[in-house]
Amino acid sequence: MTAKTPPPPGKFITIEGGEGVGKSTNADLIQSVLESRGCEVVVTREPGGTALGEALRSILLSADIESPVAMAELLIIFAARAQHLTTVIEPALAAGKWVLCDRFTDATYAYQGWGRNIDQRAIASLEQLVQGARRPDLTVLLDMDPSLGLARAKERAELDRFEQEELAFFNRVREGYLARAKEEPARWLIIDASKTLDEVTTVIGQALNDWFDNA
Ligand code: TMP
Asked: 4 CA to middle of ligand 1, Å?
């Protein structure tokens, strides 16, 4: 009997981008690349990923209830994150699983920091408090002109509270993501999401396999 090569120890991968950039479709692709490498993958999302987190997500996205002020929005996001990290993400990583998360704290820097103009230091303090040293090992940024992504989001469904923001907000969000990616290039894969789905999936598949081989 030949010994089976053990899968590599779990890592934490996040997917980020503006509205309508195709995160869900590409999450499926990333999951299958990881599984083809023998990884057990837990797919999750923020805000959300737990019963409490999903309830908080409904509040955050609802356009029908009182809008939280920016600081309340930030604290709700980190409350959901604390629950998610402790009950889902950390246990999965500790068990050697891979975690693929649709959005994480880079979204908070981009949306609440750049988008809502909350001081980055306030976000950094909460990040430290809630996450300790936990940071993503790899972040896939699906980058696209926000006017294109918003047009796609509008075709899909009724717009949620974030999607109803004006274009200038999403231009700041994009700027925030790109600035963060520039600060820490080794962690980020920047993908041009304006290309066709076939082109995007090919590029992500190749980039992910290269990252895997060099990790
Ligand atoms: P989604 O629809 O892309 O899953 O994300 C829901 C919305 O939540 C999206 O408009 C971005 C927003 N969001 C923040 O503003 N800050 C955060 O930290 C996260 C995780 C999401």
From this structure: 40
